C-alpha cells in the first residue's frame, strides 16, 4: 500500500476554503486512507472493524481483538465505497463480506441484536460495561444500516452476489425490534441475559438514534407500530422544540439539554444511509436540521468563547472522541468544549458544509501533515491548547468520514439505503415525507 502519510505531506494543495471536487487530490487521499481502517486494519478472523487502533501500540490488554458492531456497520458501507473508488476489486469485497456474514451468523446475539463489542477470534460477547453484556439495539441498528446497503448493492448481481445479499437480508430480518420495547411504547437500548433490563435505558430523541426507530418500523419480521416512534422517540410531541442556537434556528429538543445541537455525530450516524435531503415529518425538516447542527458547531469554533488555541475557520469540529482525559462527548457549549478538535466532525459534514469542511481538511494538512494524518486517515482528535495529538483511531469516527465524503460526491450510500422497499414502508408508516 502506498504511504499515504507521506503523500499527505507532498500533495498539491488547492486554495484553502475551496469546495471538495473530484480533482482535489487531498480529498481523494483522505477518503482512501481512511477507508484502509476497515480494510487493512480489520480484525482478521471476523473481517469486522476493530474498536480502536493505536499506531503507537499503546493498547489496553487484548484490545486488538475487540470488534465494534456499530463501527463495523459503518465499515460495511466504507467497503462499498472502496469498490466504487477502485481501492479494491468487487471479488475482494465479496470475499471479505462472506467472511463477515459467516461471523455475524455465528457470533453471540440476543433476540437478534448483537452486543456493542465482540471478541473477534471467538465471536463471544465482550462486555461494554458490567451490565452491558447482551444485545445493544442502537449499535445493531448502525450495523443493519450497513447490511441493507450491501444487500441492495449486490441483490441483482451474479449468483454468488445474490447469495451474499440473501445472507445480509436474513441477518437484518432476525433483529427482534419488538422485543426491545420491553412491553412499552419506546425502544430500549440494552437487554442482557444476566441482568435483563437493568441498564434501563429507554431511548428518547433527539440524538444519534433516529435510524433505530426507522428500522424498527421498517422491519418485515419484528416491526413496531408508529406509536412507539411518536410516544417513545418523540415523547408525545415534545421532541419539537424550535429555538435559536448562536442565531441559527434548530427545531428539536436535544437530549441532555444540548440546546446548541450536541456532539456533531448526532448529525451523521443516522444519516449515513438515511438521506436527509427533502426529509420531513411533523417534528422537523431534517435537511435543514442536520445542516444547521453543523453550522452551529462551526460558528461556535469561530466564536471560540473559551479562547482555545487553534480554533477558527481552518480548524473546527466538536464531537465525541478521545481527549486528554479519556473519551469525551465534546460539544459546542461551555461545559463540553474542552479544547479538543475531532477531525471526523468536520470531514463527515462535507454534505452539509462542503466549503468549511474542505478548509479544515487543507488547513490540517498544511499545518500538521503527518503529525495528524496517518495510515488510516486523520487521527481521532487533537488539542493545540494541550499540545496533544496522539496517533489513535476509533472505528466509529473513521467510518462516517469515508461514507459522508462519498455521499457528498455521489450520494452512493443514500441511494442504496433509500432504495430499500422496507425503508420506504417505514418512512410512510411514521409519517415522513421524502422528496
Short description:
The chain is mostly helical and 435 residues long.
CATH superfamily: Glycoside hydrolase 144 (GH144)
Terminus-to-terminus distance: 41 Å
Predict the CATH topology. Answer: Glycosyltransferase
SS-derived structural category: mainly alpha
Strand percent estimate: 5-15%
Question: What's the helix count?
Answer: 14
Which regions are unreliable across 5 or more consecutive residues at pLDDT < 50?
1-20
User: What is the element string, with H for helices and E for strands?
Assistant: HHEEHHEEHHEHHEEEHEEHHEEEHHHE
Largest sheet: 2 strands, antiparallel
Structure explained in plain terms:
This protein is mainly alpha-helical and 435 residues long. The relative contact order is 0.15. The chain has helices at residues 4-10, 25-35, 69-85, 90-106, 137-154, 159-173, 210-218, 226-233, 286-303, 343-347, 354-368, 395-409, 412-418, 421-429; strands at 52-54, 66-68, 117-119, 135-136, 190-191, 240-245, 248-252, 279-280, 320-321, 328-329, 373-374, 377-378, 392-394, 433-434. The strands form seven sheets. It has a two-stranded antiparallel sheet with strand order 1-13. β11 (373-374) and β12 form a beta hairpin. It has one domain: Glycoside hydrolase 144 (GH144) (Glycosyltransferase). It is globular and about 50 Å long. It is built from 14 helices and 14 strands. The model is unreliable at 1-20 (pLDDT under 50).
Amino acid at each position: 500500500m502506498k504511504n499515504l502519510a507521506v503523500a499527505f505531506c507532498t500533495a498539491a494543495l488547492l486554495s484553502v476554503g475551496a469546495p471538495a471536487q473530484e480533482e482535489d487530490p487531498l480529498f481523494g487521499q483522505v477518503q482512501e486512507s481512511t477507508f484502509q481502517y476497515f480494510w487493512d486494519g480489520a480484525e482478521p478472523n471476523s473481517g469486522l472493524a476493530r474498536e480502536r487502533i493505536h499506531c503507537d501500540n499503546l493498547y489496553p490488554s487484548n484490545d486488538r481483538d475487540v470488534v465494534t458492531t456499530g463501527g463495523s456497520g459503518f465499515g460495511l458501507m466504507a467497503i462499498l465505497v472502496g469498490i466504487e473508488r477502485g481501492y479494491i476489486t468487487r471479488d475482494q469485497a465479496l470475499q471479505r463480506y462472506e467472511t463477515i456474514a459467516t461471523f455475524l451468523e455465528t457470533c453471540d446475539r440476543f433476540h437478534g441484536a448483537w452486543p456493542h463489542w465482540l471478541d473477534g477470534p471467538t465471536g463471544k460477547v465482550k462486555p461494554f460495561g458490567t451490565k452491558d453484556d447482551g444485545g445493544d439495539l442502537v449499535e445493531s441498528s448502525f450495523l443493519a444500516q450497513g447490511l441493507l446497503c450491501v444487500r441492495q448493492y449486490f441483490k441483482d448481481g451474479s449468483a454468488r452476489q445474490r447469495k451474499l445479499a440473501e445472507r445480509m437480508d436474513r441477518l437484518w430480518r432476525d433483529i427482534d425490534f419488538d422485543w426491545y420495547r420491553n412491553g412499552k411504547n419506546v425502544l430500549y437500548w440494552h437487554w442482557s441475559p444476566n441482568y435483563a433490563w437493568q441498564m434501563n435505558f429507554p431511548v428518547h430523541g433527539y440524538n444519534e438514534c433516529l435510524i433505530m426507530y426507522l428500522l424498527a418500523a421498517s422491519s418485515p419480521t419484528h416491526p413496531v407500530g408508529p406509536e412507539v416512534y411518536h410516544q417513545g422517540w418523540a415523547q408525545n410531541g415534545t421532541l419539537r422544540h424550535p429555538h435559536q442556537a448562536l442565531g441559527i434556528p434548530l427545531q428539536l429538543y436535544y437530549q441532555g439539554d444540548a440546546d446548541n445541537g450536541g456532539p456533531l455525530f448526532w448529525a451523521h450516524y443516522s444519516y449515513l444511509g438515511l438521506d436527509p435531503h427533502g426529509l420531513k415529518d411533523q417534528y422537523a425538516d431534517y435537511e435543514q436540521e442536520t445542516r444547521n447542527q453543523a453550522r452551529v458547531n462551526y460558528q461556535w469554533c469561530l466564536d471560540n468563547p473559551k479562547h482555545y488555541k487553534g480554533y477558527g475557520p481552518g480548524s473546527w469540529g466538536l464531537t465525541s472522541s478521545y481527549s486528554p482525559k479519556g473519551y469525551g462527548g465534546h460539544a459546542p457549549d461551555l461545559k463540553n468544549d474542552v479544547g479538543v478538535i475531532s477531525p471526523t466532525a468536520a470531514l463527515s459534514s462535507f454534505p452539509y458544509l462542503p466549503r468549511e469542511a474542505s478548509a479544515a481538511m487543507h488547513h490540517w494538512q498544511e499545518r500538521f501533515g503527518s503529525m495528524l494524518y496517518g495510515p488510516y486517515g486523520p487521527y481521532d482528535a487533537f488539542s493545540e491548547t494541550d499540545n496533544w495529538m496522539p496517533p489513535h483511531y476509533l472505528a466509529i469516527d473513521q467510518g462516517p468520514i469515508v461514507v459522508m465524503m462519498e455521499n457528498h460526491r455521489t450520494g452512493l450510500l443514500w441511494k442504496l439505503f433509500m432504495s430499500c422497499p422496507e425503508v420506504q414502508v417505514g418512512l410512510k408508516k411514521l409519517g415522513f415525507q421524502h422528496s
